[in-house]
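# nightly structure sweep
# worker-07 picked up a monomer target from the shared queue
# config: single-sequence mode, recycle default, output format = structure tokens
# input follows
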Amino acid sequence: MNKTITEAIELVNNLKRELIDVEEADIVVCPVFTALSEISDLVVDSNIGLGAQNLYWEDKGAFTGEVSAPMLKDAGCQYVIIGHSERRKYFGETDETVNKKIKAALEEGLSPIVCVGETLEEREADKTIEVVKAQLAGGLGGIEDLSKVTIAYEPVWAIGTGKTATPDQAQEVHKFIRGWISEKYSSQVAESLRILYGGSVKPSNAKELMNQEDIDGALVGGASLDSASFVEIVKNSL
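# output follows
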């Protein structure tokens, strides 16, 4: 929940100028709902995609305060973040609601960025794999086609804390996710699936994280609020 429309426009204009020549990476910005339409106009015919931070699983109805997949599509979105740890922590998101939202996004042709990850207590109890496995199974239940799905591993203890999973810790979980997808779907699906790391990603650690075999990109939080920082992360990841 950052950036007014004016501030979001300034940020994206800076990104467009600094990243205009980047072709080796897919770049997506996910502003607040109020800025989506304005940013959509800005990124048309650019190398920057547009995503939303959440959606509701019904298309319309008496759900005051919610935003649906058709509304996001109409505002120009191609992507939507689903199941972010802050949504789970503060707003009661569950694997069941994540599943409904993924299905709603896919039905509308949106590409969901599905978040999974453990809390500090769960990691200290050696439950990381158990938790991530349950979130994958619950979130992806009944979804047969993953071609438009991206998974983001974001350890809750590393979000906004300044703490970051070590490259080895992140790689271990990413490798598990890819292996689980291979087992449940196919090795071909697992190989083509994009898995992102999120959790205090910054210019100083982006390259080392992105160099891990199973880490395909980053879900950048606080560091994306400053255009110079975000540009550096993108360029360090190439």
